[in-house]
Amino acid sequence: MVADPVFRLGFREPDIDTNLPFSDGTVKIEGFELQIVPFKGPDSVDAWDGSFGGLMQSKGKGEHPWVSIPAYPNRKFRTQYIFVNTASGIESPKDLEGKRVFVGGTAGIWARGALFNYYEVDFTRIHWFMAGSEVKPWAPGIKVDPVPRDANLDEMLLNGDVDCVIEPNVLPSITRKDPRVRRLFQDYKTEEQKYFKATGIFPISHVMTLNQGFVERYPHAPVALLKACREARDVAFDRIQGSGPYYLTLTWASAAMDEVRRVMGENYFAYNIGDNVKPLEAMMQFAQQFGVTPRRLDYMSFFDTEAAALPGA
Amino acid sequence: MAQPTLRFNFREPEVDTNRPFTDGTVKVEGFDLQVTTRVERLGPTAQYVGISADAAEGEPDARDVGFAELLERKDKGDRFVCIPAFPNRKFRHSYIFVNSQAGIDSPKDLEGKRVAISGWANTAGLWARGALQDYYGVDLTRITWFAARPNASRVAEGIKIERLEKAGMAVLDDLLVSGEMDGVIIPDTLPSITKRDPRVRRLFSDCKTEEQTYFQESGIFPISHIVTLTQDFVDQYPEAPVALLNAYRQARHVALDRIEGADPCVVTLPWASALMAEQRELMGEMYWAYNVETNRHVLDAATRFAHQQGLTANRLDYASFFDPAAAALPGA
Fold this sequence. Notes:
The complex is a heterodimer.
Chain A: E1 6-11, H1 20-23, E2 33-38, E3 47-51, H2 52-61, E4 66-68, E5 74-75, E6 82-85, E7 100-103, H3 105-118, E8 127-131, E9 143-147, H4 153-159, E10 164-166, H5 172-175, E11 181-183, H6 188-199, E12 204-211, H7 212-217, H8 221-241, H9 253-264, H10 277-289, H11 305-309
Parallel strand pairs in A: 1-2, 1-3, 7-8, 7-10, 8-9
Antiparallel strand pairs in A: 3-12, 4-12, 5-12, 6-10, 6-11
Helix pairs in contact in A: 3-10
Chain B: E1 5-9, H1 19-22, E2 32-35, H2 39-42, H3 45-48, E3 62-66, H4 67-75, E4 80-89, E5 96-99, E6 114-117, H5 123-134, E7 144-147, E8 160-163, H6 169-178, E9 183-185, H7 191-194, E10 200-202, H8 207-218, E11 223-230, H9 231-236, H10 240-260, H11 272-283, H12 296-308, H13 324-327
Parallel strand pairs in B: 1-2, 1-3, 6-7, 6-9, 7-8
Antiparallel strand pairs in B: 3-11, 4-11, 5-9, 5-10
Helix pairs in contact in B: 5-12
């Protein structure tokens, strides 16, 4: 008997509910011997949960020896990640005009997409700050300055050095409810549900991605991985709504999941192309608008053809 | 010098409140924690949480036990020591399942019906029956109860339990779906409920509202599991209860942080942190307190229900369960 080939899977986020069933050994990949390894960049693994913004950037540059599958283990509405200084007088998105705003990461692309296209904020009237590596005036009239490499964004917002921070993690001062800062949208749940109903966009943060060389050696790997990701996603849902829930401190998690289904549809966490055309299109549009890619890309060009055509969700 | 080993049997090593122990995030100061949960219970996850097959041999020094089971054993005079750490709490209204054709629209309609349970000493059942009797005014003697081991526990006068040949979850699910049972009250959600089979439903279709109202009116947030240590271990290491309670508080903090902290773990629920904020608003900032003070009313209700339902011959005094130093530890 020939041993199954090794499949090295690494995660940026091994502990989130959608990835945990791989990390804890519950889900395997058919036809492969799965090894969960620490993620230390794309070369350290055969597949990983790639940041969508990073993938856009590399694809735009044409330095992209990778192929993705339509599995999105991390999705988050990003309007809840717009944090403002309470004293800055920012009550609504338009109030960001004339202010100093830090923005970064994939989260920053989705948040800017909403601010620009949905809330119609004039970006030329904002003084932007970004991490040094990202600094780039993405359109005529855009003013961007770098923040120091060791900048503490939480401190900067608390001190009023910037008026607003948009980034992928919840700032510590927000979690501990420091009165000097707050979210732009205090009732972000209502706001994000409204945004979803109006636009159909449920932002995709991470896309499962394989190394091109690995796919050339094992052409069936993308489909096998997609099936395993769907299974892991089902396990994650079952750990909230099934017979023995995991997240006990959220007493009404199961009822909340029913509510999400009512608002966003039965298949709101679909791992396919068909149910995700709007967010995929939106990322192509936003990435071009904010200079992440030099032109508008075709989202189909990211995906393995067979995995993209796999029926189901 | 090597630290003494603390052998802990977690009933549910994977739930958010226990996982920080099994995944190595939280340590018990002064002790080496060894997890003795049986490997078979966990499947592949055992390896992930670092559980080995031989660890389960012998008696553990500490474990999380069902509250009703604890009351039953205390009533019989068993010696073991509790700390006020409650890693599993659930409202049990959501675990009362009925056949859709049984004509059960309100709690009182359960009277005259056939209801299967895991056993009289199951904690979910204790809390569900407590709510039915105490809050909804249901006469528990007018229900015909079914369980696999009808004589395993004491029951109150007039309570009638018939014998079921088999009582695994799949069997109970079939009995309810087919209408052989009108109701089922067990600690886990039935598969047919999860897949929304129209032949069955929850007694309370809007459980969340019902449970929130119940909490507001009764002040009861049911405790399913309590952490206990053997008397021998505490005699040998009197500092163990406080060390374990401190660790439990830290693990609870980690669990909450994994939902509303910098990098949330429950991605499939887009508004999990808003949900948690809503729960704090309703039930208080520290709704998951690991102390005696905040939980007096609930501890008292458990001893009252156990006595009312005949599970214990005496009305027990919960204060006597706890290690005095752990019970007096400030904070939550």
